[in-house]
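Batch manifest, entry 17 of 40.
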Amino acid sequence: MKPGDDNWLTIQVKEPSQNDSSVGARYQGGIIRDVSLVAVPQEHFTRFNVETDFDSDYENSTLKVWLGAAIASDANVNLTLTAPDGSSVALDPGVIKLSTAQRS
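Output type: structure tokens
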């Protein structure tokens, strides 16, 4: 795929079977949303998810971060968190280590 050039995406659309319980509403096969092709660098994030779990008083929380990446060599991702007043909030750990042995 080359940005700026004409690129083609070929897909197959399959109607879910009558026995497929994962399909809530029945529909005719087809693409019901826009489809886009996106060019990304050879090394890139494949997944980035952040979740915040607050205590019952909404004063303290746990920040959970999941990352996946297509990388050629091991890498570190440094995390920073900034409070509303602009000060830095300490994170432990403040680094996520990505390994080529744990690709996602």
